[in-house]
Amino acid sequence: MSKSVFQKVGATRIIPISLKILIIFVSLLLLSNFATNFVNSFLSRRQIISLNNTVMISQLKDIYSAAGNQYQIFTFTENREESIHSIANTARHGFEMPNSIAVAFDRTGKILFCASATPLPPIEDESEKSEKKIPALNERSAQFSDEEALASLNEHFLAGVTDGSILFRSDLGQYFGVYKYQEDWECYFVRAELRSDTMKSNITLFGVISLVIVGIVVGFLLAGIFMFKHILESVHKITADLYEMQEKQKLSLIDLSESPNDDVTYLAASFNSLSSTINNLLGIFQKFVSKDVVAKAYNEHQIRLEGSQQNLVMLFSDIKSFTYRTETLGNDIIDLLNVHYDKVIHKVHENAGVIGSIIGDAILAIYGTQQTDNKSLDALDSAWQITHVTAELRARMIERRAEIEQTRTLTEAEERIYQAVLIDIGVGIDGGNVFYGNIGSDEHMTNTVIGDNVNSASRLEGLTRIYKLPVIVSGYVKNEVEQAGITKYQFFEIDTVQVKGKTEGKKIYFPMIASDSNDEREKFAQYEAALDAYYKGDWDTARMKFKDCGIEAADVFLERIGTQSAPKNWSGIWTMQTK
Known about the structure:
Layout: E1 8-9, E2 12-13, H1 17-77, H2 80-92, E3 101-105, E4 111-116, H3 126-131, H4 147-158, E5 163-170, E6 173-182, E7 187-194, H5 195-231, H6 233-248, H7 263-288, H8 291-300, E8 307-319, H9 322-329, H10 333-350, E9 353-359, E10 362-367, H11 375-405, H12 412-421, E11 425-440, E12 445-450, H13 452-467, E13 471-474, H14 475-483, E14 489-498, E15 506-513, H15 518-536, H16 539-549, H17 554-561, E16 574-575
Helix pairs in contact: 1-2, 1-5, 9-12, 10-11, 15-16, 16-17
């Protein structure tokens, strides 16, 4: 899937640095070339005007000479019009611009002749001439119209200056040229060019040069793109890696295996070093703090003293007979705990749980901090998986003992160690509204969960020792699983107990995996029938059914009721004497 050139980080659009460099490079190149072209054009215009003046002076000399010759012819033939016409034709030979003119007029402004590069068509009669608007200066003009220029020429004439440069206005615009006074005809002979014509040639030249510049720039641009792409290839790769990290919200290392040894690669290498340090710290942080706190700290870049009421499920697991195991193993108990917790914590995390705390041989896991389909189901799956991995560890120890006993008998010390490593656990699960968050101070804080349901999970785990069951759960867990229509587990009521310090009884359940044998389900069904008789006060029936059900938990009731009958005002609730 192709990525956009302009990627976004949040709401900020990221512009590639290579594009910025190209834009600046092209802009400066164009500005430099156009500025140079403009200065050249300005200087060229002055040069063109100077060259035009030189050309016009040469042409004016020709016209002036022709005028002198034609005057001699006129004095001989007395044909004034023909001589003037010949002078105009001579003047017209040197025209190159579309509005070039040669004109002769006396000191009063009366025109002797006016020759232009594009002669007007002849007028057939005087009425047509009067109807047409004739420009102030062309071949049909009778009077030189720029009185200010005429006055300037006359002023110079009186001062003895009979030739030089001239500027004058016409309907077409401003003309510039050269003049010389012809004494025979007693007229000023002028050769002039329209200034806008020279400007047009300059503009045309400027346009042609600009097109050439644009073409050259496009060529350089393509070459620049190729070179920048090669030079900044490592920048693109580094940017892509950083963008991917931003998308995944996870730091990783940038691949620099094919990067050049420039300062950009050095920056990337420095980033890799920083990333490794942060990842190491984050890894250490994750080992001491629950996953949801780590994720929040990573996203918000801080950890605050805060918490809230949340509906969560708590799983409490404890190693049975831990005191005996500690006395037997000594410092080696730590190695045993690490082997045990390594598997337990993996199972908790696999089922979307977080570790709330580890207290010696006990572990508290919390479910519901991450979005899942059913937090009680996640806790139940974890409970049975923890139970199974613990059973597998015991099975390996039993196999190891059998291997040793094939050659010899275990010593008394070895037997004690063997019994100590055969760890067994109980799991209690309860859920409900609890406080979940960070408590402590700005200098030291811890993530914790507080509430009656947390204590209840611990007490349910304690009941596993009494009822000889691996997992005991509350009605909250049973109801959440059954209401979701999940049939993976079948719940059997174990008892109704009243926790010390509480005034109400609480039903407890054993979550049997539905795929277990029918014999076990039948035993628990008979157990529930005995329990029902027990609740109703029919202890004789209950005693008989408890004896026949074959469930170890029944021994609790057989011991509890003995040979007695139910007391008066029997509520069916057993009050726990310990926490």
